[in-house]
Structures are given as C-alpha cells and as structure tokens.
Design goal:
The chain is an alpha/beta fold. It has 21 helices and 11 strands. The strands form 4 sheets. A 4-stranded parallel sheet has the order 4-3-8-9, with helices on both faces. Strands 5-6-7 form a 3-stranded antiparallel sheet. A two-stranded antiparallel sheet has the order 1-2.
Length: 571
C-alpha cells in the first residue's frame, strides 16, 4: 500500500516544484513536519516573497481533494486535516498489510560497524550503547529491505597479545581455556598485565612473542586463536542474553586487515598523499588543524614501522567499498572518536577509495552515567560488566512481577522478567538522543509507568488481553472507521504516522525518533481506552474499535521489534 506519509509527501513535493521549477533539493526531506516548517520559508526567501503569499501559491497548486483540507496558518505554515474517508481507506489497508504501510526497498548494501569489544576482556557498560544502537539500526535497515552486513570490529591484534599468550602458556592450555570459557576474561587479562609489569623476564618473553605473532609463527598463531575463539564464544553469550543479532560470523577484527596495511601505505604513497613527519608516515587531510592552526596529521605508519588504528580503519573502508560493495557504511562508535573518523573518511575520499556515491557516517553517541552524573562504575570504581547489569535488571523485574501476580509459574515469570529487563535497558538507551549522555537508573527504567520499555510492553499486553476476552468472532475485512469520537481520530492519526516515524529515524540515524513515536502511540491508546469502551460497544462501533486496537497492537509489536525489544502478550 502507499502510506499516508508517501501520499502527502508526493503531493507536497509536486506543488513545491510547480511553484518553483528546479526547487532546492533540500526542500525535499523525509520528515514531513520539517518540510512544512522550513519548505515554505526557504522557498519564500529564494523568491523574495512574504511566506504567507508563497504558502498560498503552494496551496493553490496542492491537489489533496478527498485526502485533506488545507489552510495557511501562522507565518506561512500549511496545516493539513486529513478527511475521515481518507483515514478510513488508509486504516482498512493497514489491516491487511503486515508491513503497516512501510514500503520495501531493495538493491542497497549497508555495512554497519558496531559493538567492537576487545579479545580477552569482558564486555562492560561502555559497550552497551554501540551494541544496542547499532543493532537497532541493523534491524531497521533490514526491515526496510536493505542487505545489512554487520561488522564486529573486535580488538584482536597488537602488543598486548604477547603477554596474553605467555600467560596462557604459564597456566597451561587446559587451565587457561577453563578460565576463559566461563567468561572470566578480566581476571585472565589482569593477571597477565600484573606479571608483565612486575616480572622483567615475563616482559621480555612477551615482547619476543609479539614478534613471533606478527611474523606469522604457526604455534604462536595457534595460541592466539585460542584466545580469540574463547573470547568470541563469550561475546556470543552476552549477545544472546541481550537479544542482539550479532553472531560469531560477524566478527571481523583488526587482524583481518593486517595483510592489507602495507598496501594501504604503498598506495597512499603512490597517490602522493604520504608525508614523513617525525619519522612517521602521515597524511594531512585538508581542513584539519590543531589548536595552534597547524595542519593535523593522520598517522598511517608509526616511526617504529608499526601500524596504528588509522591504517586499519583505512584498510577497512577500502575493503568494505571494493569487496563488500557497500552503498552505505555506518560506524557506531563513541563521540570522542569523531575527529578520527572524519579524518579517515577524508583521506579515503582523497585516495579514491570512498566514492561520493557511498554514504559513510560516524554514528556518534554519548556516555552512560551513574546517579552522580559521572561515568557509570561500581562503588569500588570498576567498570560494570554487561552481564551483571542485565542480571540485576532481571532480578528487579522478577521481584516486581512477583508482587503484581501470583498466578504465573516461576519459569514463566523468569522468562517474562528477562524480556522486561532487556526492554528496560535497551529502551532507556534508545529513547535518548544518541548524542547525549544519559543516567542509568534501573528503578526508573524498570517501571511500568512513564516513558519506559516495560510501559510499552504493558500497553501491548493490555491490547492483546482485549482479544482474549472476545466472546464472538471479529472480522477485520468488514471493519470500517467512522472515527466519530475525538480519541478514535487521535489514535488513527498516530497509527498512519508509523512509516513517517521510521523514515525519520532512518534518515537521521536516530532510533529515539521511533521510540518517541511508540511512546506517543501508547499514550494515545491509553486516552482512547479510557474514553471509548471496546467490548461493551454496540456494532459497528465495537468492530471499529477492535480494528484500532488490533492496529495499535501490531504497530507497537513491530516498532518494538525494530528496536530489539520483545512484546509479550501477557504481563
């Protein structure tokens, strides 16, 4: 079906183009509210007219007969009031559309780089945002019809692996594997680090082992692979606990690009981009300076001939464009890495490895803070493990459920508590503008009231309970929507806006736009439910209201699933 959003956007675009042939492409935006707010103003400015006069010209050419009544308001806004007949047609079409008005597109490949933990280190709260935001974007892209290639760029290479391999040998393979396989990666790493800092002989062995690793020594590579395999297995357990779609097959770490690094240096040199500075080989991309206004270098090869992150990231860009045929590349990495990625992308474009046709963006995000608004840590100052965080959330959800209902078996209650805990943790992150910091407050996040994941889950469960109480069959194919009550109309307007909310989230790479839409829809349903009896209503009102409930239930379930959140039928 053609969504309400697409119909209105198409008609608005046509009217704008008629008023101003060759209109600025910036006037065509995927966010209709932004189009209405800025489009007339921008067009009026380019024509040297009063915005209200320009709005009247657009209105005269706007063909919305049978769709909406339009008026010019304020300084030049176009206010649209959808007709009941049009809303009825849209809602009836939605009842038979499993995609709820979202058109499927195809033919684009999106590489999404997210999560990126380090081998032989446990995943902690610092990995939460990249993992949750990246996974939500991957789900939304897949639903839209894109081919998503997930890349979990784990830290699996470099000098620390010398000490880790030597510590593995000191313990013995069996004992080391037993320690790593239970997810005790931090203890293993700390013990290796302590020996490295206190034992000179161990330090020398570790340095010699790094040379063997980088030189391709077979036995050293075998031992290194043990560390990688056990860590990747642990990561997979964390992803399963969080219900994240990343798999071991998506792990493509730093080591994967190691054999490409010399080619990166060679080809940058051939392109005339490399400059020696302080013994290091660098590129000075245009537009980047330090505080003193001096050109800022991207160090590709260090003075000791080792390669840094920049070389690896350049190799990754090159591989993803040339081998994976990416149309889009998203890097879901913390905001402090912004300048690094801007410089990497600039160098890749200067080298001809990143065509202008490929969208490449750093999807930056802020920090997770504790109640004191400082970096979220334990009382002893240690970073909080993701598994521990989720376990505490599950325990709190389980306790809350035990107080709410005694009819649920212990196994069913724990399963539901796990779903609620995931929703609480993910939604708190995804309902926040990703570029802002947010405070991790489990008491607020696990609540069944307010702007929380459990609240949206409960709204969905309450909707499904309506259908469990049906005493006679309901036929959606014969349902029509008169929308006589204002609360019915408000809910209907929320339902037809789902494609627009998803489009806005995708265009801005901001999952909180979808989260905010779902919360608004749940509030519209609450107002509707309080004002409009459903099962007690006479026909045809009963069927109409059941139709609105069915569409609200499906929209909440689909929207939550795109955020990586389950929608239980009972709570």
């Amino acid at each position: 079906m053609t969504s309400t959003y697409d119909v209105l956007l198409s008609r608005l675009t046509s009217a704008f183009d008629t008023v101003s042939e060759g209109a600025d492409p910036a006037l065509r935006t995927s966010d209709r509210s932004d189009y209405q707010a800025n489009g007339v103003m921008a067009l009026a400015k380019s024509r040297g007219e009063n915005p209200r006069d320009t709005a009247r010209l657009v209105l005269a050419r706007l063909d919305l007969a049978g769709i909406a009544e339009v008026e010019v308001a304020g300084p030049g806004f176009l206010n649209l009031t959808l007709t009941t007949d049009f809303l009825n047609d849209q809602l009836r079409a939605l009842l038979g559309d499993e995609r709820l008005g979202v058109a499927r597109r195809s033919g684009r490949v999106a590489v999404i780089d997210y999560s990126a933990p380090n081998v032989a280190k446990e995943m902690h709260v610092g990995h939460l945002r990249s993992t949750v935001i990246g996974d939500a974007l991957a789900r939304m892209y897949r639903f839209r019809g894109d081919t998503v290639i997930a890349r979990n760029h784990v830290g699996d290479w470099g000098t620390p692996f010398g000490m880790l391999i030597e510590h593995l040998l000191d313990l013995g393979e069996d004992e080391a594997i037993a320690s790593l396989s239970i997810g005790d990666l931090d203890s293993f790493y700390r013990a290796a680090r302590q020996k490295f800092e206190s034992d000179d002989a161990f330090k020398e062995r570790s340095r010699a082992r790094v040379v063997l690793l980088q030189g391709g020594d077979r036995e050293t590579r075998r031992l290194w692979q043990i560390l990688v395999d056990e860590s990747v297995a642990y990561f997979a357990e964390v992803y399963r606990a969080l219900d994240v779609t990343l798999t071991p097959a998506d792990v493509v770490g730093e080591s994967y690009y190691n054999d490409m690094l010399e080619g990166v240096v060679r080809d940058l040199d051939a392109a005339g981009l490399l400059v020696e500075s302080g013994g290091a080989l660098c590129v000075f991309p245009e537009g980047f300076t330090n505080r003193d206004g001096e050109p800022l270098p991207l160090i590709v090869q260090k003075s000791d001939e080792g390669f840094g992150y920049a070389a690896t990231d350049l190799a990754a860009v090159r591989d993803r464009v040339s081998n994976l045929r990416a149309d889009e590349m998203l890097y879901v990495v913390g905001a402090p890495q912004g300048q690094h990625f801007e410089m990497v992308f600039a160098v890749a474009r200067a080298a001809g490895w990143l065509p202008d046709s490929v969208r490449c963006e750093h999807v930056a995000f802020g920090n997770v803070l504790g109640p004191d608004r400082k970096m979220f840590k334990t009382r002893s100052g240690e970073t909080i493990k993701l598994v521990s965080l989720l376990e505490e959330a599950t325990q709190r959800a389980d306790a809350a459920l035990a107080l709410r209902s005694s009819n649920m078996s212990e196994d069913d209650r724990h399963h539901l508590a796990t779903q609620i805990a995931r929703a609480a943790v993910k939604y708190a992150d995804l309902s926040t503008d990703r570029q802002r910091d947010y405070v991790f407050d489990l008491d607020r996040m696990i609540a069944f009231e307010g702007d929380t994941g459990p609240y949206l889950q409960y709204a969905h469960a309450r909707l499904r309970s309506i259908f469990r109480r049906l005493e006679s069959p309901w036929d959606p194919s014969t349902t029509s929507f008169a929308l006589a009550d204002p609360a019915e109309r408000e809910l209907a307007l929320g339902l037809v806006a789902f494609p627009e909310a998803l489009a806005a989230a995708l265009a801005s790479l901001q999952p909180h736009r979808l989260s905010g839409y779902l919360f608004d829809l749940a509030q519209r349903f609450t107002s509707f439910y309080e004002a409009c009896p459903v099962l007690a209503a006479a026909e045809p009102t009963r069927s109409e209201r059941l139709g609105l409930c069915e569409l609200t239930s499906r929209t909440l379930a689909l929207g939550l699933s795109l955020l990586g959140i389950e929608a239980p039928s009972q709570m």
